Amino acid sequence: MDALSYLASFALVAGLLTVVPGPDTAIVLRAALVRGKRHGFATALGIGAGTLVWGAAAAAGVSAVLTTSRVAYTSLRIVGACYLLWLAYGLLRAAWVNRYTDVDVEAASAGGAKAAPGLWSAWGRGVLTSLTNPKVGVFYMAMIPQFIPSGAPHLAFGILLALVHDIEGMVWFAAIILGANSLRARLRRPRFRRALDVSTGTVIAGFGVTLAVADN
Q1: Tens digits of residue pLDDT in 16-70
Q2: Where do the TM regions start and end (predicted)?
Q3: Cβ-contact 55, 140 below 8 angstroms
Q4: φ, ψ for residue 148 (rounded to 5)?
Q5: What's the CA gap between 82 and 194, in Å, rounded?
Q6: What is residue 149's DSSP assignment?
Q7: Burial class for 146, CB neighbours closer than 10 Å (0-12, 13-18, 19+)
Q8: If both were cysteines, with which of 26, 123, 137, 195 could 46 make a disulfide (CB 3.0 to 4.6 Å apart)?
Q9: Nearest CA to 166 among 204, 130, 132, 119?
């Protein structure tokens, strides 16, 4: 196969992975619903940046440690699980102790400086969510070497494959963000905001527990 065929084959496999729900989908959806399109896209771009790092690491062979060293994989898995559980705790605690008001929700919907964290914060949350997910690293380590043509520069082509995955991810996230934007008017209802935090926190906690108890 030529390089284009390798890219197309990888795009098909990565596309299937992209639409499988995970913690990245959960945090992008919540960012879009609560903070708006800009924060949703900032979070998605952060996840994409983390994906590129994993792709470069896999192409360079660095992430091979995750498949050869159980200690390294387990350590990163526990860190990732703790991070997800920390995110979930923040959301569930907010839903439990905060008294949402129409003013607070409208300020968040308007992107008020006091109500919403900055775009860099949203981007950083996306990066951390991606980098602390060892399953992404294992997937890249298993798949990327198989889709690098013989004679092609491993690092450059590996990053190109990760970029293809990023583009697919951004298309998927854009659909989620734009769809969620139509629901933002409902955020004027404090009950909806609380329900959103509870449901998102529960989903992320579930991913965190699953990651913590997973053997591989």
Answers
A1: 778 777 788 888 988 888 888 899 999 999 999 998 888 888 777 665 565 566 7
A2: 40-66, 78-96, 155-183, 195-214
A3: yes
A4: -100, 115
A5: 23
A6: P
A7: exposed
A8: 123
A9: 130
Rounded Cα distance between 126 and 119, Å, is: 11
Phi-psi region of 152 (alpha: psi -120 to 50; beta: other; left: phi over 0): beta
Nearest-CA neighbor of 84 among 73, 94, 95, 76?
76
Range of the domain at 7: 3-14+22-213
Which pTM was predicted?
0.71
Give backbone dihedrals phi and psi of 214, rounded to 5 degrees, phi first.
Answer: -70, 145
Number of independent structural domains in the chain: 1
